[in-house]
Amino acid sequence: MWKIREKDQSFDYSKAYDDKSTSFSLQIFHGGKFSKSPNMKYKDGEITFIDDVSLYDITLRMLDEMVKRIGYPCDMEFFYQFKEPYVCLDLGLKSLKGDDDFDGLCKKVREGYKVIEIYVEKKKKNDEHSSDDIVDKNNPMHEINEVVDMGNFHGCVRNGRESESESESEDLEVDHDNFDSQSDEETTVLKRAGNIVRSKRKRKTISVDASVNPFYIGQLIESSSMRWSNHIHLYQEERFIY
Q1: How many angstroms separate the CA atoms of 66 and 3, rounded?
Q2: Which CATH number belongs to the domain containing residue 50 in this structure?
Q3: What value does the mean pLDDT of the chain take?
Q4: Overall average pLDDT of the 60-73 stretch
Q5: pLDDT tens digits, residue range 156-182?
Q6: Which of 124, 152, 181 is the last residue before a domain boundary?
Q7: Quick one: 99 and 7 in the same domain?
Q8: Is residue 158 included in any domain, yes or no?
Q9: Is residue 218's pLDDT more than 80?
């Protein structure tokens, strides 16, 4: 059974734990506060030693009982941190928030360490904020209650979507009446589709400067002489091939 060591009482760890490989002592730091990193220190606190702690019994509930036996009120809640041996406070602190977090502590005891440092921080009951939360007093955060008018925003979004939908519908609209498969057996589906595309492009380019809509593949040539020249060119190419 663990017990609180009296102040200024001498204690021989080798003799006390010579045949107790699973027993150890806790060096509990309490009542103080941590300085800022780097070179973190625990200031204005007290140290209490608790001996004959069993490796198999250590839990959060046991730590709560120990701290209350030291003299803290029963209506307080506590945060506990275990420090790895021979590691500075900046890097060695490990939070003990659940019983599973004691694995690292128990590992050190099995490795032969007989004194384990525990740092205690207290909070009032029902306080939801952990003392691990760091608040920079030199740069406080202010809550902003500014109201943003979203009316214009929604209007712009709607207008943008409507204009986009109109442009898409204009580009994708197809007259399905021209796809009557029974109307002309000699006309293929591909040719009919090409006629539809060329007719729609023709309507778009009426009364528009040629510099705005330059030549593109599949464009309908308005001049009959140009069409005739094109036919002659194709005829000559076919003769050359054959």
Answers
A1: 9
A2: 3.10.20.90
A3: 75
A4: 94
A5: 445 555 555 455 445 545 555 554 545
A6: 124
A7: yes
A8: no
A9: no
| In contact, 194 and 218? CB cutoff 8 Å | yes
Q: Which of 91, 124, 157 is the last residue of a domain?
A: 124
Closest CA to 108 of 127, 82, 128, 90: 82
Q: Same domain for 94 and 194?
A: no
Q: How far, rounded to the nearest angstrom, does the alpha carbon of residue 75 sit from its chain's CA centroid?
A: 37
Which range among 58-67, 86-95, 179-188, 211-220 shows the weakest confidence by mean pLDDT? 179-188
3-class secondary structure per residue, 35-84: CCCCCCCEECCEEEEEEEEECCCCCHHHHHHHHHHHCCCCCEEEEEEEEC
Whole-prediction pTM: 0.52
What is d(CA 83, CA 94) in angstroms, rounded to the nearest whole number? 6
Residues 16 and 80 in one domain: yes
Domain range for residue 7?
3-124
Residues 6+ away with beta carbon under 8 Å from 132: 79, 95
Residue 150, in any domain of the structure? no
* pLDDT tens sequence across 103-147: 999 999 999 999 999 999 977 555 544 444 444 545 555 555 555
Q: Is residue 20 part of a domain?
A: yes
Query: How many domains are contained in the chain?
Result: 2
Helix (H) or strand (E) holding 182: none
Q: What is the pLDDT of residue 232?
A: 66
Separation CA 18–CA 15 (nearest Å): 5
Q: Which residue has the tokens 């979203």?
A: 150
96 lies in the same domain as 200: no
